[in-house]
Amino acid sequence: MDYVVFGRANETDAEENFIGFHFEQFAVQADSAEGALEQAEAQMCQRLDDVNEQQNKQFLGFELTGLRLSDYLDLKAEIESGEFELFN
Description:
2 helices, 88 residues, globular
């Protein structure tokens, strides 16, 4: 099954003070929602490492949430407009 997974990381300064959020989005194929989140977790770690290396940004923790691709397509306009909140 196809999923779209969103990641939100806490960006911090050198003293680990919160600066803001860093968002990523992943297209994932998995047999279950749990499997999709596991795959996205590994991808999120890699992307944050890449951003840290390329842009010298620091992160302290992240969270993931996802939708089946069909649900994402149905809600895409609301997600992009901010009407549908992915993270509570």
